[in-house]
Amino acid sequence: MECEICGRKTDDLYVISVEGTQMLVCRACKHHGVFISKYRAKKTAQKKARKIEEETEIDVVEDYNERIRKARKEFGMEQEDLAKKVNEKLSVIKKIEQGKMKPPEKLAKKLEKLLKIELLQTVKREHIETKLKTGALTLGDIVKIKKK
Ligand SMILES: [Zn+2]
């Protein structure tokens, strides 16, 4: 950008009013008119995808039912024995072994200890959020950010 009075190239520009006409001038020329405001170059809003957080989540492995059944049999336990040992109803153990119900984390941990197997895995979830680099957020962006 250059000063409209002296032609000096600078980014430090001011909007002044010279006899009713707005001009963009440098710091040195600003006294030629009535100061209105500091000029801010309008940057084009750049969208930039930014990885804001990596969230880790604990999830039960896909083949949990097979792992449990196999381990239980290796320990020579019936479904009933297993149910008693982890303080669950037999129906819950049955559902789990049939793959109809994923054991909740707490139960999965008990089963892991008892049967010496691994049932839980850590799943990483990446959250990508789009933010306007300039900070000039549109209403839509603000709503999206507040929701998270
Ligand atoms: Zn100037």
How would you portray this structure in words?
- The chain has 148 residues and is of the alpha+beta class.
- Among the domains are: 1-41, no CATH class; 59-117, lambda repressor-like DNA-binding domains (434 Repressor (Amino-terminal Domain)).
- The chain contains 5 helices and 5 strands.
- It has helices at residues 64-74, 79-85, 90-97, 105-115, 139-147, and strands spanning 13-18, 21-26, 34-38, 47-60, 120-132.
- The longest helix is centred in the middle third of the chain and has 11 residues, at 64-74.
- The radius of gyration is 33 Å and the shape is rod-shaped.
- The model is unreliable at 128-132 (pLDDT under 50).
- Zinc ion (ZN) binds at residues 3, 5-6, 8, 25-26, 28-29.
The fraction of residues assigned to DSSP E strands is 25-35%
> Architecture of the domain at 59-117, according to CATH?
Orthogonal Bundle
- Average pLDDT score: 83
Low-confidence stretches: 128-132
Structural class: alpha+beta
Going by CATH, the homologous superfamily of the domain at 59-117 would be lambda repressor-like DNA-binding domains
Supply Rg: 33 Å
Could you spell the SSE succession in H and E letters?
EEEEHHHHEH
Give the overall shape, derived from the CA principal axes. rod-shaped
What composes the largest sheet? 3 strands, antiparallel
> What small molecules accompany the polymer chains?
zinc ion
Helical residue percent band: 25-40%
Number of strand elements: 5
Instruction: Report the span from N to C terminus.
Output: 40 Å
Q: For the record, what CATH class of the domain at 59-117 applies?
A: Mainly Alpha
Determine the number of helices (DSSP H or I, runs of at least 4 residues). Answer: 5
Biggest sheet strand order reads 2-1-3
CATH topology (fold) name of the domain at 59-117: 434 Repressor (Amino-terminal Domain)
